[in-house]
UniProtKB/TrEMBL annotation:
<feature type="domain" description="ABC transporter">
    <location>
        <begin position="18"/>
        <end position="247"/>
    </location>
</feature>
<dbReference type="GO" id="GO:0005524">
    <property type="term" value="F:ATP binding"/>
</dbReference>
<dbReference type="InterPro" id="IPR027417">
    <property type="entry name" value="P-loop_NTPase"/>
</dbReference>
<comment type="similarity">
    <text>Belongs to the ABC transporter superfamily.</text>
</comment>
<keyword id="KW-0067">ATP-binding</keyword>
<dbReference type="Pfam" id="PF00005">
    <property type="entry name" value="ABC_tran"/>
</dbReference>
<keyword id="KW-0547">Nucleotide-binding</keyword>
<keyword id="KW-0813">Transport</keyword>
<dbReference type="InterPro" id="IPR017871">
    <property type="entry name" value="ABC_transporter-like_CS"/>
</dbReference>
<dbReference type="InterPro" id="IPR003439">
    <property type="entry name" value="ABC_transporter-like_ATP-bd"/>
</dbReference>
<dbReference type="InterPro" id="IPR003593">
    <property type="entry name" value="AAA+_ATPase"/>
</dbReference>
<dbReference type="InterPro" id="IPR051782">
    <property type="entry name" value="ABC_Transporter_VariousFunc"/>
</dbReference>
<protein>
    <submittedName>
        <fullName>Multidrug efflux system ATP-binding protein</fullName>
    </submittedName>
</protein>
Length: 252
């Protein structure tokens, strides 16, 4: 988990946290992104749904500046990720499917270590408050991370994002491998982060949880969003049917 700390500009109606405009990315003869458009504002949770190969990982890598678009623009808090990846990443916290912590260190020690890398000096009390806000049980704060479940490791990652006051939180398959109770708990944690003003983009296959977590759902297919909907307007069955129908239309 690599963290950088910078002074963050305010994001508002005229300055979205994330702005992807007509992004194109090709790998040889294969087009991974084909004119992708996506805007994400402070406090908004956007779920990016799509089958393997739809372009979710490529999208994340463009936002992090690990790849440059062949056309179009990817901006984080007004900073072009392709030309200034370090500046863009200074506003981003990325939590992969498997969060890597130092197993011999406790949750508090991991949090303070990653905060130090970001130029922050967190006290033990401040660390406890952040871990509690991220949903990590108090009894686990001082335990070695080797004893943590996937969900607990993710919460330490959320605490790092809160400590940094990251404007954009990227989640890659956050509920994969979690039992129903842990997934529900993590949904609450994500909503709390959004309530603080953090924009959240999550790549996921979990149709059930997106109704609880997301304000918007985008169906990604062949490198472009083919549906952008409010998940609250559909029940779980209707959302699943819409997802399957839209993919079938594209592949027919």
């Amino acid at each position: 988990m690599h963290i950088e700390q910078r002074e963050l500009p305010q994001a508002g109606a005229d300055n979205p946290v994330l702005a992807i405009r007509a992004a194109v990315k090709r790998f040889g003869a294969r087009t991974a992104l084909d004119g992708l458009d996506l805007t994400l504002r402070a406090g908004e949770v956007f779920a990016l749904l799509g089958p393997n190969g739809a372009g979710k990982t490529t999208t994340i890598n463009l936002i992090l500046g690990f790849l440059k678009p062949d056309a179009g623009a990817v901006q984080v808090c007004g900073i072009e990720a392709g030309s200034d990846p370090v500046g863009a990443r200074g506003h981003v916290a990325y939590i992969p499917e498997q969060v890597a912590l130092y197993p011999g260190l406790s949750g508090i020690e991991n949090l303070r270590y990653f905060a130090t890398l970001a130029g922050l000096d967190l006290s033990v009390d401040a660390s406890r408050r952040l871990l509690t806000e991220a949903g990590l049980p108090e009894e686990a704060h001082g335990r070695p991370a080797a004893s943590y479940s996937k969900g607990m490791r993710q919460k330490v990652g959320i605490a790092v994002a809160l400590a940094r006051q990251a404007r954009l939180l990227l989640l890659d398959e956050p509920t994969s491998g979690l039992d129903p109770s842990a997934a529900a708990d993590f949904s609450v944690t994500v909503r709390h982060a959004a309530e603080r003003g953090t924009a959240v983009l999550m790549a996921t296959h979990d149709l059930y949880r997106v109704r609880e977590m997301a304000d918007r759902v985008g169906v990604l297919s062949r490198g472009r969003i083919v549906e952008d909907i409010d998940p609250k307007t559909l029940d779980h069955v209707a959302l699943e049917h819409l997802y399957i129908e839209r993919l079938a239309e594209i592949t027919a």
